[in-house]
Amino acid sequence: MAEFKINAKGLQCPGPIVQLFTQIKQAASGDTVLIEATDHGFKKDVAAWCKKTGNTLLSLEEKDNVITARIEKG
């Protein structure tokens, strides 16, 4: 299983989600994607996006104004 990393810092909505969607499409089931974003709306967006798409939000944290989410492709 692979892990992909996305740097979406500095992008505003919907940029981080669009990048996440693009990467998840290319990933295999069970792969994980680590994404970092600075748009504070991303925290709520990524949780809702995972629920809607059937992917698993493994972790979500914020430190020094950077939101880091780890998602597993369902």
TrEMBL record:
Domain UPF0033, residue spans: 6-30
Keyword Transferase part of the UniProt annotation: yes
Family: Belongs to the sulfur carrier protein TusA family.
One GO molecular-function entry: transferase activity
PANTHER family assigned to the protein according to its UniProt record, in alphabetical order: SULFUR CARRIER PROTEIN YEDF-RELATED (PTHR33279:SF6)
Identification of the protein by name: Sulfurtransferase tusa
Domain of life of the source: Bacteria
InterPro entries reported in the protein's UniProt record: TusA-like (IPR001455), TusA-like_sf (IPR036868)
Protein's organism: Lucifera butyrica
Record keywords: Transferase
Keyword Transmembrane: no
